[in-house]
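Subject line: Sequence and fold of a protein, written as structure tokens
Enclosed: The protein record, placed directly beneath this head.
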Amino acid sequence: MNARHLCLLAALQTAALPAAAAEWAVDPAKSAIRFSGVQVGVPFTGRFERFKAAVDFDPAKPEAGHALVLVDLASARTGDVQRDQALPQKDWFDVKAASEARFEATRFVDKGQGDYAAIGTLTIRGTSRPVTLPFHLTLEGGGAHATGRVGLVRTEFGVGQGAWASGQWVALDVGVEIDIVATAQPAGGH
């Protein structure tokens, strides 16, 4: 095969592959950030109704990716009125002092077969800790769907003060789940 044929073959193969965008627009209406825990032995779940996310991710170069997720802690809802009224208060999220949780991923690691890990820092109530969020990514037709879960110890972030600092009434271990739907942005556009 001569050089001209190789160039033509390479061009055809490249044309057949979808262009992987680096910037993604997250659709909050189709996306969710949920949490789960156990209170007096009974499991509960909830969600954050408001959050913003900026994602720069190219599956061909995951190590160069970056994401910033800001979660409005006052938007936490579990369906239990007493719990929902308590969560924004000083003993729990203390939204008057710090209204947002912040997760900043400074890189991604390809684990194979659509599985990735977002390596970054989570900040809640002014306390920052390194966090690795494993997730599965499906790319289709200019869209992306990421689902993942990470376990956290709430007291490592100061969530649960006073009588709530032990696991006696509310377990220390909590889960955070993401279900994110995003659309690829054109190069240079937002």
Notes: The radius of gyration is 20 Å. The chain is about 10% helix and 50% strand.
